[in-house]
Amino acid sequence: MIEELDRRFAMAFENSDQATVLEERYAINFIRVAELWESKQDFEEKGRKTKAGTILIACRLLERENLLRIVDDDREIRTTRKLDDLMLNYYLNDSRVVELRGLFEGGAGVNAQD
């Protein structure tokens, strides 16, 4: 996960013009988020302010919402029925897939009316 997030946050620096457009649209400072991510160490035993600790905190939040189960001493993440249903019936809806792909690919394909 760390490697994939590193790659995606690096793209925020490469495409700063698109990041600015998305920041205005979603009111999230993506470049600052990428800077904060880059400033973190990859891993430190019991470190909460590391990249691994940040991912674990996000997973714990999803676990509290009954969207994930974390097993095997925090080494395996499993989805719950609730998340599976949300993915199948909402996020994987054809129009939603186009919108989400657009977000991950730098804004192309995003619905102008949202």
Please describe the topology of this protein.
Elements lengths: L1 H13 L1 H11 L3 H10 L11 H14 L3 E4 L4 E4 L1 H11 L2 H11 L10
Antiparallel strand pairs: 1-2
Helix pairs in contact: 1-3
Pfam family, one: DUF6063
Commentary on this structure:
Pfam families: DUF6063. The protein is mainly alpha-helical. The chain has a domain at 1-39. The protein has six helices and two strands; from the N terminus they run ααααββαα. The protein has helices at residues 2-14, 16-26, 30-39, 51-64, 81-91, 94-104; strands at 68-71, 76-79. The protein has a two-stranded antiparallel sheet. α1 (2-14) crosses α3 (30-39). The longest helix is centred in the middle third of the chain and has 14 residues, at 51-64.
Question: TL;DR of this structure?
Answer:
By secondary structure, the protein is mainly alpha-helical. Helix content is 61%, strand content 7%.
Weakly predicted, low-confidence segments: 108-114
User: How are the strands of the biggest sheet laid out side by side?
Assistant: 1-2
User: How many alpha or pi helices?
Assistant: 6
Shape: flat
Return the average pLDDT rounded to an integer: 82
Task: Provide tags for this entry.
mainly alpha, DUF6063, flat, two-stranded antiparallel ribbon, 61% helix, disordered C terminus, 6 helices, 114 residues
